[in-house]
Design brief:
With 91 residues, the chain is of the alpha+beta class. It has a domain of 61 residues: Ribosomal Protein S8, Chain: A, domain 1 (2-Layer Sandwich), CATH 3.30.1370. 51% of the residues lie in helices and 15% in strands. The chain has three helices and three strands, in the order ααβαββ. A three-stranded antiparallel sheet has the order 1-3-2. Strand 2 and strand 3 form a beta hairpin.
């Protein structure tokens, strides 16, 4: 018989999973690609960088990226459209 866990337990599981997801996202190749793109754009005299997800990337990573970038003082705008999901980062 399947036993239903309490909402409190499920909330705890959810929170732990979210913390793990954020940690993995910030250690990912995708985040490295974003940081490198920002650095190269700045070195080229630009003050913005557009990042679009590849087909195999989890869309939720954009939220983690945006949260992290905003904490570091960047402006982040969602540029998702019918062509794909992405963000524009400005400094």
């Amino acid at each position: 018989m399947v036993q239903l866990q309490s909402a409190k337990v499920m909330n705890s599981v959810s929170n732990e999973s979210l913390v793990k997801f954020k940690k993995e996202t910030l250690e990912s190749e995708s985040f490295n690609k974003l940081v490198t793109g920002i650095e190269k754009s700045a070195e080229a005299g630009k003050n913005a960088f557009s990042y679009f997800l590849d087909k195999n990337e989890e869309p939720r990573i954009l939220g983690v990226f945006a949260e992290t970038l905003k904490l570091a003082g960047y402006e982040v705008k969602d540029t998702s459209n019918t062509s794909g999901k992405g963000i524009v980062v400005k400094w």
